Amino acid sequence: MGSYLKFSRCSAPPQKKLDKRVAIIGAGPAGLAAAGYLICRGYEVHVFDMMEEPGGLLIYGIPDFRIPKKNVREGTQDLARLGVKFHQRVKVVPGDGYRDGEIGFNEILRSYDAVIIATGTWAERRLNIEGEDLPRVYSAFHYLFHYCRVEAGYEKLEDLPPLGRRVAVIGAGLTAVDAAAVSKRLGADTVYMIYRRTINEAPARRHEIEKLVKSGIIWIELASPKRFLGDREKGVTGVELIRMRLGEPDKSGRPRPIPIEGSEFILEIDAALIAIGEIPTPPILDKELKINPDNTIWVDKKMRTTMKGVFAAGDVVTGPSLIGNAIASGLKAAQAVDEYLQGKISWDLTP
Fold it and tell me: How far is CA 75 from the centre of its chain?
């Protein structure tokens, strides 16, 4: 990307200010897009975020070679210039009042006319197989988080956990793609990318995977990890895989991978990065706020939750998605907030 990410919808703040305050929880793409719309409509906008700087996964989850952090920073600085007030290193927690580095969700509800929850997906899915807790079996999401913190200047490269010469990346989404590329950049000689379906069903775009293969990554499809080998002293030393075949479509619409009995084989590895998806992380679990079985927040077509005055947007609503989708979701929620605060929509919901 050659230019900065523009989250605002205007070049200067409007002269007419509205006597309404909006709180946005989370400074990722959805939250920033919402802030950019609402500040240009004349609202007082406050963004609460637990990290050192705004940007969410644009700063802390996506390496510079995909989205340069300077482009993100220019976009958030533009929002601040327009009047968006960022409250960084502040975690929103259940309850009331202020504490060191925390603010109670009830305090936000009392202090603002509307709230947008845009906290994203900050927890990783697990394989739940033998050996997953061995040393050097990492969450790709958390490994990239620390790598990006190095790029952002918050951690030192020498403090990154070791990978060794042979790395297995489990998964085929963009997190897996970035984990494989980062493994190469950190000096791994052999990087396997292992997926239980084929390249045709991979969540990442085909050209992303083909680019990795051209760089020397070894693509292994129709295989799934059965267990990790090793011990607590040596750490992981291998991964046992089982070959798969594709069956009838599952609820995702893709062919269901079916294990082939007796087809197990072993790869010797020094580290594994598990990248099989992330889980939404709502800031509160409240009986008034309906949470779906997959941990996403329930919203209606206007992005309204079951809690009056509280909207939600981005990956905390949809699950992991592309940046463009998160931005569109944040914009949609902001437009609904505007309608709500102008008295154009009410809060009669039937979830």
Answer: 19
